[in-house]
Design a protein that fits this description.
Elements (H helix, E strand, L loop, with lengths): L3 E5 L17 H12 L7 E3 L6 H4 L5 H17 L3 E2 L5 E2 L3 H21 L4 E5 L20 H11 L6 E5 L6 H6 L6 E8 L22 E6 L5 H19 L3 E6 L16 H18 L2 E6 L5 H15 L4 H10 L16 H15 L11
């Protein structure tokens, strides 16, 4: 048995978007090709997605919203065209079923790692999810796949504490809203700031009521590279995770902070995603919990596919020495990945990390000591 369960199916190309729309079917097709090219597909155990039930969707989303999506799905079928949901989110004739499969695929991945024997899982699905709110679509997203998975782990598999890490270039506003007052889900988002969604994701957005302190935003300036992301990880993510001791780590794995991505201005390299994943695995080992990764953004199909392969390669490594060897050879899977990148303004990045750490220290004892 592989260490990794992979949720991946050509059916996720069925969600149609307008021509030249960045969230295109070619994204998952490129990942499929890269996984085969790297021969990783031979090492992974593929598990089939299933549609999330209405009851499961209701654990996060409002009933009227699900009904609205279904009604618009019927309109798309009748017209044979696309239905525009907001400025940049669309539904095609098969989007509703595909979105339910994307949501259910995440639930199957969680069930598999917690009861089926796999150490970790990667969910390669679309539409993505982390912008979807409880009651409306947003930013290419229909259902919030990672939020649904967190609730499923708690309600169906009896986990107490779930940690969601989001390294997409855009703030995970939907996930933040859903868990904003809930201390049983620790949400931590890296993102470019200021960016999209506008006026969201500042570090003073720290939760509400009992959830105060369990919402952590790391708003990094444009031009932040591998150095800054890794420094923020070591200064904030690592100590908070050790203090929180989650039962499961979910990753909203967007790759649009890559230096080659057309939508963001961050400077992460493919090697940087490898290094971040290495740190993620180290956290899971120290916390004795599994990881489930959910594909979010990433709109240069080459850098997206290469970065997904880098992440999966690390997740599937047998042990730390194997991961260290991958890093030492610099050949994550035989492609040119480029050197680790620096920050356009390292002083600004370091100041921002220090500000976040100082602000959140009132909630987290582990942040009160020097990093």
């Amino acid at each position: 048995m592989s260490k990794i369960a992979l949720v991946h199916n050509e059916i996720f190309q069925n969600h149609g978007t307008p021509e030249a729309h960045p969230e295109s079917p070619e994204r998952v097709a490129a990942i499929d090709e890269a996984l085969h090219r790297s021969e990783l597909m031979l090492e992974l155990d593929r598990i089939s997605p299933r549609e999330a039930t209405t009851a499961e969707l209701l654990s996060v989303h409002r009933d009227f919203y699900i009904q609205e999506l279904e009604a618009k799905h019927l309109r798309a079928q009748e017209s044979g065209g696309l239905i525009q949901l907001d400025a940049d989110t669309f539904m095609s004739q098969r989007s509703f079923a595909t979105a339910k499969l994307a949501a259910g695929g995440g639930l199957e991945a969680v069930r598999n790692v917690l009861t089926g024997g796999h150490k970790h899982a990667y969910v390669v699905v679309r539409p993505p999810g982390h912008h979807a709110l409880a009651d409306r679509p947003m930013g290419f997203c229909l259902f919030n796949n990672v939020a649904l998975a967190a609730r499923y782990a708690q309600r169906e598999l009896n986990l107490k504490k779930v940690m969601i890490i989001d390294w997409d270039v855009h703030h995970g506003n939907g996930t933040q809203e859903i868990f904003y007052d809930d201390p049983s889900v620790l949400f931590l988002s890296f993102h470019q700031y200021p960016f999209w969604p506008p006026d969201m994701g500042w570090y003073t957005e720290d939760g509400l009521g009992n959830g105060k302190g369990y919402n952590i935003n790391i708003p990094l300036p444009a031009g932040t590279g591998d150095r800054g992301y890794l420094a923020a990880w070591d200064a904030i993510v690592k100590p908070v995770c050790f203090e929180y001791q989650p039962d499961l780590i979910l990753l909203s794995a967007g790759y649009d902070a890559h230096s080659a991505d057309p939508l963001g201005q961050q400077q992460i390299s493919t090697q940087g995603y490898f290094l971040l994943t290495n740190r993620l695995v180290e956290l899971s080992e120290a916390s004795n919990c599994q990881i489930v990764c959910f594909l979010e953004g990433g709109y240069n199909t080459r850098s997206l596919a290469d970065s997904v392969v880098a992440t999966v390669k690390v997740l599937n490594a047998h042990d730390k020495s194997h991961r260290d060897n991958l890093e030492a050879f610099g050949g994550i899977y035989g492609a040119e990945v480029g050197p680790a990148t620096h920050d356009r303004n390292p002083f600004l990045v370091d100041d921002r990390i220090a500000e976040v750490r100082q602000y959140m220290a009132k909630y987290w004892r582990s942040l009160r000591t020097s990093s």
